[in-house]
Amino acid sequence: MEAIEVTGLRKTYGGQDAVAGIDLVVARGEIFSLLGPNGAGKTTTVEILEGHRRRTAGDVRVLGEDPGTAGSAWRSRIGIVLQDADDAADLTVHEMVKHIGGFYPDPRKADEAIELVGLTAKRNSKIRTLSGGQRRRVDVALGIVGRPELLFLDEPTTGFDPEARRQFWDLIRTLAADGTTIVLTTHYLDEAEALADRLAVVSAGRIVAEGTPATLGGRGAAEARVSWTENGTVRSEQVSDPSDLIRHLVASGADLSTLTITRPTLEDTYLSLIGATR
Ligand SMILES: Nc1ncnc2c1ncn2[C@@H]1O[C@H](COP(=O)(O)OP(=O)(O)OP(=O)(O)O)[C@@H](O)[C@H]1O
């Protein structure tokens, strides 16, 4: 059974399509990332999958059930890290994580969840005394304390410092290796590239491209730009396979100390996909 199966999903607000027909399958154990500009329909889609919003049309199965009608047993199998979680600021980190863990049938120990997000040193601090990035880590701890089979992360690393982001990425990989399915919404393309097995780009309520980070939008087949210096001048050529050109340059004794070979980044591909659909 797939973790998520969506066909023909639509959501309209006052006659306007926020989600205009989305088909989506996420396999169990997969890290799936949703990308797209502000207002594309990502949060609306994810909130429907979480059972927090009603759909206008379409068929949705999440862990085998319809989120619109599924009950608390289904809910306890899902973890959610929202974009703007509002913490109960007067509790300590440990009190809060323990409290939320109490709602699940087989929670992690609060200290284990706190350690997984790297907050052990702040275990006994009141949440209101934490920095923005530390609070975000509490949100993540709350999302994983119930040992979810499926974890939704909506822009999880906003406000994280670079080291905290890398730690968070390791955590997500560990959870996925344990079999947790992860749906990640992010505006950080390096994050999507580092984590996602597959990604989909949403624009104006539709999926405009889907693939792996390496192949999205034809990226795998994109030409490489080879640059080098010749007689003090920078030369560059665009080729599908640089091997012949490099052999030729080596044979001709060209100066290759400044040689670079670049292909479109995920960000380049994403921006051209978004630009083409606007
Ligand atoms: N409750 C609502 N009532 C009316 N319109 C809404 C509502 N929620 C979202 N929308 C509209 O639906 C569209 C999709 O919004 P959504 O929040 O799903 O986008 P998003 O892709 O998550 O954007 P962001 O990257 O900014 O979080 C937007 O045009 C938004 O204004």
From TrEMBL:
Its main location: membrane. Pfam families: ABC_tran (PF00005). It is found in: Cell membrane. It is a peripheral membrane protein. Residues 4-229 form the ABC transporter domain. GO terms for molecular function: ATP binding. InterPro entries: AAA+_ATPase (IPR003593), ABC_transporter-like_ATP-bd (IPR003439), ABC_transporter-like_CS (IPR017871), ABC_transporter_ATP-binding (IPR050763), P-loop_NTPase (IPR027417). It comes from the Bacteria. Keywords: Antibiotic resistance, ATP-binding, Nucleotide-binding, Transport. PANTHER family: ABC TRANSPORTER ATP-BINDING PROTEIN. This is ABC transporter ATP-binding protein.
